[in-house]
Design goal:
The complex is a heterotrimer of chains A (379), B (293) and C (320). Chain A has 379 residues and is an alpha/beta fold. Chain A is built from twelve helices and 14 strands. Chain A starts with a helix and ends with a strand. A two-stranded antiparallel ribbon of chain B has the order 1-2. Chain B has one domain: ABC transporter involved in vitamin B12 uptake, BtuC. With 320 residues, chain C is an all-alpha fold. Helix content of chain C is 75%, strand content 2%. In chain C, strand 2 and strand 3 form a beta hairpin. Chain C is globular, with a radius of gyration of 20 Å. The chains are: A alpha/beta (379), B mainly alpha (293), C mainly alpha (320). Chains in contact: A-B, A-C, B-C. At the B-C interface, helix 4, helix 9 and helix 11 of B face helix 5, helix 11 and helix 13 of C.
């Protein structure tokens, strides 16, 4: 090669390197999801959605000219690992915000870390106690299970079916729901006639349902995630139980209908709007974002975009809007998050404030019913 | 307490108990022929259900063809497990055997997770879902299938072990391995047979219960443990005692969940296990063992 | 003059003490704290399994009991953590002793299943007694340990705290192994009847070592509770008991340093397998099987054997 080629090459390489130096460093966002393990049905769609939306943002040029870098770790649903990995994200990877974890138990474990290191945490889990009482650095995008419970109780009160039996799964999701079911009963005039639990891996709940059948309950509320509720639906059908069966938003997915088969007909549950996006009236301000999310997720992952994935999508978008307002440090992002008003997300319309880090209201849930193996909205 | 409620608890418990019994017999067969407790027994139950699913969905076989295929593949898996894990063991101390079978069960579970994912899957019932009413309690046709198939297997077992040469040879091994090999029985082949039979039985158990309970990569863990409890209650026999052990376990669990507390249901099985081990380790029906020094 | 073993231990302790200087309070510091806790647990199980030859598949239960007792007494009832810890250890030790009498009459697989059942029952109790333990969601707000004005709330401080305990446990176990008690344990392992004939009260000894093992687990649990400030039943289930077993088997039954190696390997392994999370369950299973088939003495013994084999040819070369 002659001297001219070499000098052009040198110049080219120098320009390349210097542009790399001058190009803005990516903004690092940490994520803790339970991608494997017992909470994988939460963590996997969350991680998928987060990656999907970060990729899209970057393809469109990033935020304020800077790309987003998502550093996501698998906690396997273990609180100890969640704490370890949160520390790693903050100390080693130096992220400006953390999304997740997927379960309430893990979130409660990670809260002290986030508070101490002063890094904003946007949790994707449903436990009401995450944001109640309010903690300075902790936000959540998942709807509070208190809202879901309220929806069901409201309907029952209206239909004068106030004696209920509750059947909850003995894991974090179920026990959190159970707490809320008991705490809010009085407010809606509901009497809890019996309170039973079942294990996440149990395969037969006829014993509990037999007990419920013999009581004077007018409705059964089951709080759990697949496959338990499907077994319960089938058992209830087998035992010839006629009183209405309500489920939680934990099973607002087509998978539940598939598993429960015919036994799912007539079951009602509170659901995030994403599951019935196409049934919403066009006037609903969330409809556009919901339809886009569902279509996108289907294209990317060949699977139903559910509202668990939606929590992560909301979290990333909220951080994006904070960055758009000029924030790129943990403190600034936290402050901007608190100022969010009326953000039309997947989980609902978010409005945060200094006293409210959960951001959602009653409209986050709609009551749906299974009819002909599909969802319909209950008026 | 109403009669029909108790009847319901008992009936539900009987069908769950039948599954525990089948798994327990699987444990006993291997233990009797080899002295090994195969912690991976529960995984063959899981394989039976998931393989049936694959044969139904992927290969589009009808149910009556998918089931034998699934059992066949599970049996091969049992064979492979024996060859790879048990036979090459240089120091077959109890500790090593426990650890290797635990390791094996984890490995099989992990492979299943890779192949079938973490989702739960359902399998169609053999003959529909219309409940049958018996004196105020209801059961499903699938429950009848479970009880019937369990009965058939027990009869076949009894016939095999008492009226065929290879069955008698296996029983000889369980009484005294050295004496058995002295009379010309190939002990190693008996070990292989025991694994084949146990994995086949486990697979069948998994298939007949899957339409009721659905199946996933990790159903084997608890089922295996409870099946072992059934075997202990029955004194590690491969016959009627273990079946009764399983049925007792299933019914007590069901009654406990309904009458006492549903949260502690699993604990009931293990408390019974501990009580039996403390008070009567040879099982309810076994004879006391003497140990050679 | 210090014996070789003592010198070896001092070197090891020194290396541990210098750890923070090398890792400078980064994320790895946090992991090393857990290595310390797991080392204590692995040693506890090794005393029972490697020396006395008794299998336990339920040790996570004792770990959990220590953690929950410490946590509940300090967070809910306001006890002083330094009082709660020995109290918890005493309670766990007594319970283990009591249940040990009937349990340790069993042998081999029956013992394995009994301890398995015990561990699961303890786990279910953690899950169900929601008033006390917070149930499946666990409970937080456990205070850090502190001495006078020094609170152990950072990774480096927790490291020193945990490793002080871990080193103490190591020293104690090394001494135990080479004492009369240690020899009696190994006698019981080899042949219980022969040991009895020689005058060893095998039954009592087994129960004592079971209780001691439980006490160490309880201490580790208390330290865990005060370091993480949060406990939930999921960390104390059957899966963790299996992890502990794997640590001990990999390190080598009967080797105290091996337990440290096993604990370190299994705690650090997930860090390197970060990308392949779905495969880690397969790797655990394969590890267990491979270790038992090809390296029954554990990694430490394997290395020792290799060293001996390599050292040999020097002598045989003289005959050529």
């Amino acid at each position: 090669m002659n001297i001219r080629c070499v000098s052009v090459l040198v110049m080219f390489v120098t320009v390349l390197f210097s542009s790399a130096v001058f190009a803005a460093a990516p903004i690092k966002i940490g994520a803790l999801f339970a991608v494997t393990g017992p909470a994988a049905f939460l963590g996997e769609p969350e991680r998928n959605s987060a990656k999907m939306v970060v990729d899209e943002i970057n393809k469109a040029g990033g935020v304020q000219g800077r790309k987003l870098e998502l550093i996501s770790y698998d906690t396997t649903g273990d609180a100890t690992k969640a704490v370890q990995l949160a520390t790693k994200l903050i100390k080693d990877d130096k992220v400006v915000a953390i999304i997740g974890p997927s379960t309430t138990g893990e979130t409660m474990a990670v809260i002290p870390v986030a508070e101490k290191e002063q890094v904003p945490l946007i949790s994707c889990s449903a436990g009401s106690k995450i944001s109640d009482p309010v903690k300075k650095w902790i936000f959540k995008t998942a709807q509070n299970d208190s809202l879901a419970v309220g929806r069901i109780y409201e309907y029952l009160q209206k239909n004068k079916q106030t004696n209920v039996s509750i059947l909850t799964v003995s894991d974090g999701f179920g026990s959190s729901g159970r707490e809320q079911l008991k705490a809010q009963a009085a407010k809606y005039g509901i009497t809890i006639v019996s309170d039973d639990t079942y294990g996440p891996k149990d395969t037969d709940m006829t014993a509990q349902l037999t007990k419920i059948r013999g009581s004077h309950a007018q409705a059964i509320i089951c709080w759990g995630t697949n496959p338990g509720p499907a077994v319960i639906a089938k058992n209830a059908k087998q035992l010839g139980i006629k009183i209405p069966l309500f489920m939680s938003h934990g099973v607002s997915s087509k998978k539940f209908i598939e598993l429960a088969g015919d036994a799912a007909e007539g079951i009602k549950l509170p659901s995030g709007k994403v599951v019935v996006a196409d049934l919403l009236p066009n006037s609903d301000q969330q409809k556009k974002a919901l339809m886009a999310f569902v279509k996108d997720y289907q294209n990317h992952f060949k699977a139903e975009g559910d509202h668990f994935g939606g929590h992560a999508w909301d979290a990333v978008m909220l951080i994006k809007t904070a960055i758009e307002k000029g924030a790129d440090t943990p403190v600034a992002i936290r402050d901007q998050l608190e100022k969010v008003k009326g953000f039309a997300g997947i989980g609902g319309s978010f409005t945060y404030s200094a006293q409210d880090h959960a951001g959602l209201g009653k409209d986050a849930f709609v009551l749906v019913e299974v009819k002909n193996k599909d969802w319909v909205i209950v008026k | 307490m109403q009669f029909d409620q108790i009847l319901q608890y008992v009936l539900s418990g009987l069908s769950t108990g039948a599954i525990y019994a089948l798994i327990g017999i699987g444990f006993s067969i291997i233990y009797n022929a080899t002295g090994i407790i195969n912690f991976a027994q529960g995984e063959f139950v899981m394989l039976g259900g998931l393989l049936t699913l694959s044969f139904l969905d992927l290969f589009k076989l009808p149910l009556w063809a998918a089931i034998p295929c699934a059992v066949a593949v599970s049996t091969v898996a049992g064979l492979v497990f024996e060859r790879l894990a048990i036979r090459p063991l240089r120091q077959p101390t109890p500790i090593n055997l426990v650890i290797i079978t635990i390791g094996g069960s984890i490995l099989i579970r992990g492979l299943a997770m890779l192949v079938w994912g973490k989702d739960t899957h359902s399998i169609p019932s053999f003959s529909g879902d219309i409940p049958i009413i018996i004196g105020g309690a209801t059961i499903l046709p699938q429950h009848l299938w479970i009880l019937a198939i369990t009965l058939v297997i027990i009869i076949v077992n009894k016939f095999y072990f008492y009226y065929t040469i290879s069955g008698k040879a296996m029983r000889a091994c369980s009484y005294n391995r050295r004496a058995a090999s002295l009379v010309g029985i190939d002990v190693r082949r008996m070990v292989l047979f025991s694994f084949i039979i146990s994995s086949a039985m486990g697979a069948v158990a998994g298939i007949i219960v899957a339409p009721l309970t659905m199946t996933a990569y990790d159903v084997g863990v608890m089922l295996g443990l409870k099946g072992f409890c059934a075997a202990i209650i029955g004194g590690m026999s491969s016959g009627i005692s273990t079946v009764i052990g399983g049925l007792i376990l299933g019914v007590l669990e069901s009654l406990g969940a309904g009458l006492i507390s549903s949260g502690y249901k699993d604990a009931i099985a293990f408390i019974i296990l501990l009580l039996i081990l403390f008070i009567r380790p040879q099982g309810l029906f076994g004879k006391a063992d003497s140990e050679r020094v | 003059m210090l014996s070789r073993e003592r010198l070896g231990f001092l070197c090891f302790a020194l290396l541990i003490a210098l750890g923070p200087l090398v890792f400078k309070g980064g994320y790895l510091m946090n992991v090393l704290v857990y290595v310390g806790i797991n080392t204590m647990l692995a040693i506890a199980l090794n005393l029972l399994l490697g020396y006395a030859g008794q299998i336990s598949l339920g040790h996570a239960g004792f770990f959990g009991m220590g953690a929950y007792l410490s946590g509940i007494l300090t967070a809910t009832y306001g006890w002083n953590p330094w009082l709660a810890m020995p109290f918890a250890a005493a309670v766990v030790g007594c319970l283990a002793g009591l249940i040990g009498f009937p349990v340790l009459k069993l042998k081999g697989h029956y013992l394995a299943m009994a301890t398995l059942g015990l561990g699961i029952i303890i786990y279910i109790v953690f899950n169900e007694t929601v008033q006390l333990t917070g149930g499946p969601s666990g409970f937080s707000g456990i205070p850090n340990l502190s001495i006078a004005s020094l609170t152990f709330d950072s990774d480096v401080k927790s490291y020193y705290l945990v490793w002080s305990f871990a080193l103490a446990v190591m020293l104690f176990s090394l001494n135990l192994a080479s004492s009369r008690v240690g020899r009696a344990l190994r006698a019981v392992h080899d042949s219980e009847v022969a040991a009895r004939v020689m005058g060893v009260n095998a039954r009592l000894l087994k129960v004592q070592i079971f209780a001691l093992s439980a006490v160490i687990c309880s201490l580790a649990g208390s330290l865990y509770a005060h370091t993480v400030t949060f406990v939930s039943p999921a960390s104390f289930g059957f899966n963790f008991s299996i992890e502990l077993l794997t640590m001990v088997v990999i390190g080598g039954l009967g080797s105290i340093y091996g337990s440290f190696l096993g604990a370190a390997l299994l705690t650090l392994l997930p860090e390197f397998l970060r990308g392949a999370n779905d495969y880690d369950i397969i790797i655990y299973g394969s590890l267990l099987m491979v270790m038992v088939m090809f390296m029954p003495g554990g990694v430490v013994r394997c290395i020792a054997d290799l060293y001996r084999k390599l050292a040999k040819p020097k002598h045989e070369g003289g005959h050529a």
